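As the next step, I needed to go through one protein, both as residues and as discrete backbone shape codes, included below for the reader:
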Amino acid sequence: MADFSLSLNEDQLQLKEWVHGFAKDVMRPAAEEWDEREEFPWPIVQEAAKIGLYGMDFMANGIADPTGLTMCIAIEELFWGDAGIGLSLMGSGLAAAAIAANGTFEQLAEWVPQCYGDADKVQIGALCASEPDAGSDVGGYRTRAVYDQAKDEWVLNGTKAWITNGGIADIHVVVAVVEPGIGSRGHASFVVPPNTPGLSQGQKYKKHGIRASHTSEVVLEDVRIPGRCLLGSKERLDAKIAKAKENQSSGEKQPAMATFEATRPTVGAMAVGIARAAYEYALEYAKEREAFGEPIIMKQGVAFKLADMATEIDASRLLVWRAAWMAANKVPFVQGEGSMSKLKASEVAVKVTEDAIQILGGYGYTREYPVERWHRDSKIMTIFEGTSEIQRLVIIRSASGIRVP
């Protein structure tokens, strides 16, 4: 087990500087354009792939870090650059994480590389979990997967909603109901390979923030996939369902939950990056902007607000790093530490970006300054991968041992 330390090693410091350079020189200059276009920023992702910042090797090296901090460091810098472009770079990681959490070694080796492609042919992945009437309520999923034993194929039907990279991805990982009546214990995850007939993009959402990230519905109409596309194995799935019907726990995390638990600290890192961007911008503005004959930072109303912003960002980062270290070293989240990190960081991002607008005054409310975009981008952090309310439920259930409804 790696010791928990707040001192970054030389490799991590170099990574931080490298990613920050890309965020500063490539992402920030393009951020406003892609926010206005509301399109997936293919040129930026391709540029990242060419230097090794987007790809399976980059993700694997980050995940393999025993301190658990490498991915959080990189993600914070990317989202300091721009949240919409940052999510376009990180969105494939959701699909890859779902494959890693639920699949066999052979499936991981086959499908994860196809979530990224290479520098010459960039590919992307999508995790399809939420549905129009079921986001946080994973037990309410209706997308069905039915096994055709004669052909050793699964047939998928349903609609998924709010899917990052949905419909434009090469690899879609779909969470579907295989056994109705037993809630989320009757779910399984499936890989839908590229160009599979029956999978299509539904409506593309026009969003409040992270507009450079592609978000849409995914429609599945009689989508037939080989039996080997079930993540895990048919035998393991049958055994899990049998135990569930006997009202026993299989001891396994449900497909969507296994993925979300692994990614919550990284979502916290995203929020920290957005908050830090807004704080740093507001700090410099307050030092330069004069009112009543002196810089506005000399006014306690502004100075104390900035002090609180800095403190809350640092507290959020510490929670994120602790949760990431615990996850990497398989230390159980006994008090919902992963949810704590996501909850705190996301709420702080919303507050800090709002305060940044307040410090800039009328200028902060215009699109000529980036703080209004950062404020729009921050709000999704309190919603996706488990709302703040869901995080609070996880925390209190973990801390109390009582299943608070």
